[in-house]
Amino acid sequence: MSRSTPSGAFGEAPLPGFDLALRPTRRKPAQDPDFRKNHRDRLRARFMKDGPAALPDYELLELVLFRAIPRRDVKPIAKRLLAECGDFNAVLAADPARLTRVKGVGAAVVCELKIIEAAAHRMAQARVLKQPVLSNWSALLDYCRTAMAYRTTEQFRVLFLDRKNTLIADEEQQRGTVDHVPVYPREVVKRALELNASAMILVHNHPSGDPEPSDADIVMTRRIQEAAAALGIVVHDHLVIGAQSEFSFRANDLI
Question: What is the pTM of this model?
Answer without folding.
Answer: 0.65
